[in-house]
Write a structure and sequence with these properties.
The chain is about 25% helix and about 25% strand. It has about 325 residues and is an alpha/beta fold.
């Protein structure tokens, strides 16, 4: 069968290659064999390929953090999935392959109303959105949150989940051209990154407290979020798209007595909550309140082009339905 191997750490476009390997063995007790349909290229996949993620498999290795496929066979003792089910693949089972052998208890059966491409994108970004909204502050309807990189894939999920809970959202972007699109997504106030933005946010919210700030950028952008937060609020860093350390003014940090946290969805404290978060996220997707746009789809032999496209921007999927 065809798989995508990472052959060395660094420069994913060069070091990811499609190769032929033997098919997996038959599933044993507690396992399922899944024929993959689609798997996205995610931010975490490129971090792993560059050798700066929290997983470092021995190379060469298949990678790929999420995806969806059809259960082809099950081992003894498996009762939670059946042959023919469309499922998402659990963490630590790499997905960039025509077939994968996975622990059956980690598989999530996707409702029939959700198509294969959308199913492949459920495990990380929508689930992350739920965990971020639940993990730090007890939010109630009409409460405000603030997030940057508001046009990113994760942020779109956070916005949709937040609006499904009747939360108020401040979104921060880097250019004015993105404002209309985010307003259509339901963001209550969209502002362009600037030193004056915290005051604009305070005016737009009527001075209402903001107890949760979600930072995906780092660098000076972190200071803008902190400037908008209320005393005792939580500042959560969940990505580093800007590539710089977070800049937090001591006046805000000390004066507001802020709680500073890092987030990774696979921290031990979140593992028991992933199934519930995935279930809620899937319900929001099935309801139509969250759609995940796809920019392009590539075959496995086009992995170099897929990576380069992702690096330019957009949501990219790998299509394993016919790997040739």
């Amino acid at each position: 069968m065809k798989v995508i191997h990472l052959t060395a750490y660094g420069n994913p476009a060069q070091n990811l290659q499609m190769v032929e390997v033997a098919e997996p063995r038959a599933p044993i007790v507690g396992e399922a064999l899944v024929r993959m349909e689609y798997a996205p290229v995610d931010y975490s996949d490129l971090l792993l390929a560059n050798g700066v993620y929290f997983l470092n498999p021995q190379l060469p290795s298949v990678i790929g953090g999420e995806g969806a496929g059809i259960v082809e066979a099950i081992g003894s003792g498996v009762a939670n999935v059946r042959v023919g089910d469309r499922v998402t693949i659990p963490f630590r089972t790499f997905t960039w392959a025509e077939k994968v052998l996975a622990p059956a208890d980690g598989l999530f059966v996707v409702p029939p109303s959700i198509d294969a491409k959308t199913a492949s994108m459920l495990n990380i970004n929508p689930t992350t959105a739920v965990l971020l909204l639940d993990g730090f502050v007890k939010l109630k309807p009409k409460d405000w949150i603030v997030l940057n990189a508001a046009n990113s894939q994760v942020a779109r999920c956070i916005i949709a989940i937040a609006k499904s809970r009747d939360l108020k959202v401040v979104g921060i972007v880097r250019r004015t051209g993105l404002i209309p699109e985010l307003e259509r997504l339901g963001v209550d106030f969209v502002g362009v990154e600037s030193p004056e933005l915290p005051k604009q946010i305070q005016s737009a919210t009527g001075g209402m407290p903001i107890s949760l700030g979600l930072d995906a950028v780092g660098g000076p952008a972190a200071a803008t979020i902190v400037g908008a937060l209320s005393p005792g609020a939580h500042f959560v860093s969940y990505a580093w798209l800007g590539g710089l350390p977070i800049h937090l003014p001591q006046g805000d940090l000390i004066g507001k007595k802020l709680n500073i946290r890092g987030f990774w969805m696979y921290y031990e404290e979140f593992l028991p909550k992933i199934r519930g978060a995935l279930t809620e996220a899937t319900q929001v997707v099935a309801s139509g309140r969250l759609s995940i746009p796809i920019t392009a789809t590539y075959k496995p032999f086009q992995i170099k082009e897929a990576i380069e496209h992702y690096q330019r921007g957009g949501k990219v999927l790998l299509d394993f339905t016919c790997a040739n």
